[in-house]
């Protein structure tokens, strides 16, 4: 989308603030959880017991929470002075560019938080009252990530939890009211794949983050080790997919090697570019790779 001549608080401004490209990262874990639940239910009970209403609610909750997190990140990074337009290397942000006023962003954060709660609350009917606790934790850490935890180098842990373990396992649990070790390992693999996006983002921003005292994993490890870590995330995630094979879904193990090839080429591009705004190309590729991984797993499960 053209980022020039954006009218303040316009529809275009809000679309840019919502960061549509990040929504696949929220959708993929839920889709994997749904595919796992559908295949297991099909084999054990029959597809007529699969709740499409619960599936839709899980997906909507994940997407609304992602938009909420983007708004929170936009607002607090600007108010803390960590989103300086002159130093920023990543995509432009709404508050920093003046596309959205601070008061409007505050209202948007409140509205998306309430909307997420409204969408997520019915899941307690399908998954039990424990779903309320899950929802509260999602909202709480949505705020804590930007305001505190990302500065302590815990961002990668939160991605593993809230873009892997929690959405995959909870989505599966809502359908079948149980969990298996195979589902847990699949959720870890998904979290590792999504974490690659954060590593690329923090790799690009490592110099600014170091100056701001933001001790991300990349700042702690250094550039070279961070590149190795990025590559290792993809390798481990793909090999962890052997759990699909052991559970009778060979195709769900084989297809993600397409993702691994793409992941490797993104790694090579990171090495070549090393620093600067050109790394945004790697960020775009990492987002694409997440989608490819998710589609490979889902297709492998449903078809295989």
Indicate the topology:
Blueprint: H1 11-18, H2 23-44, H3 52-79, H4 94-97, H5 102-120, H6 123-127, H7 130-147, H8 155-176, H9 181-204, H10 206-212, H11 217-221, H12 223-240, H13 242-246, H14 250-254, H15 257-273, H16 280-303
Outline:
Helices cover 76% and strands 0% of the residues.
Describe this structure in words.
- The protein is mainly α.
- The chain is built from 16 helices and no strands.
- It has helices at 11-18, 23-44, 52-79, 94-97, 102-120, 123-127, 130-147, 155-176, 181-204, 206-212, 217-221, 223-240, 242-246, 250-254, 257-273, 280-303.
- Helix 3 (52-79) packs antiparallel against helix 8.
- The chain is globular.
- The protein starts with 10 loop residues before the first helix and ends with a helix.
- The model has no long low-confidence stretch (mean pLDDT 92).
Average pLDDT, to the nearest integer?
92
The percent range for strand residues is under 5%
The low-pLDDT segments are none
- Compute the separation of the termini in Å: 37 Å
Number of strands: 0
- Please state the structural category: mainly alpha
In DSSP terms (H or I, runs of 4 or more residues), the helix count works out at: 16
Classify the helix fraction into a percent range.
Answer: over 70%
Principal-axis shape equals globular
Radius of gyration: 19 Å
What order do the helices and strands follow?
HHHHHHHHHHHHHHHH
The largest sheet, given as strand count, sense and whether it forms a barrel, is:
none
């Amino acid at each position: 989308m053209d980022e020039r001549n954006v009218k303040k608080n316009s529809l275009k401004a809000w679309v840019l603030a919502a960061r549509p490209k990040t929504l696949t990262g929220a959708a993929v874990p839920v889709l994997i959880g749904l595919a796992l639940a559908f295949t297991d239910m099909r084999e054990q009970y029959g597809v007529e017991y699969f709740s499409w209403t619960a599936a839709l609610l899980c997906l909507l909750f994940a997407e609304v929470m992602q938009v909420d997190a983007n708004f929170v990140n936009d607002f607090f990074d600007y108010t803390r002075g960590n989103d300086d337009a002159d130093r920023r290397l990543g995509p432009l942000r709404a508050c920093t560019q003046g596309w959205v006023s601070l008061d409007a962003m505050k209202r948007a954060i409140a509205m998306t938080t309430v909307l997420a709660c409204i969408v997520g609350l019915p899941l307690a009917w399908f998954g039990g009252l424990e779903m309320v606790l899950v929802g509260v934790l999602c909202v709480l850490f949505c705020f804590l990530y930007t305001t505190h935890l990302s500065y302590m180098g815990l961002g990668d842990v939160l991605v593993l939890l809230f873009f892997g373990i929690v959405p995959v396992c909870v989505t599966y649990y809502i359908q079948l009211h149980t969990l298996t070790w195979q589902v847990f390992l699949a959720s870890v693999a998904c979290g590792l794949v999504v974490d690659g996006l954060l590593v690329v983002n923090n790799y690009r921003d490592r110099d600014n983050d170091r100056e701001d005292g933001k001790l991300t994993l990349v700042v702690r490890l250094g550039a070279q080790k961070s590149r190795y870590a990025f590559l290792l995330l993809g390798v481990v995630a793909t090999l962890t997919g052997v759990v699909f094979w052991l559970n009778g879904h060979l195709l769900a193990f084989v297809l993600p090697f397409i993702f691994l090839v793409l992941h490797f080429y993104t790694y090579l591009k990171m090495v070549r570019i090393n620093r600067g705004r050109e790394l945004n190309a790697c960020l775009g590729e990492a987002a694409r790779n997440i989608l490819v991984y998710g589609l490979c797993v889902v297709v492998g499960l449903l078809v295989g």
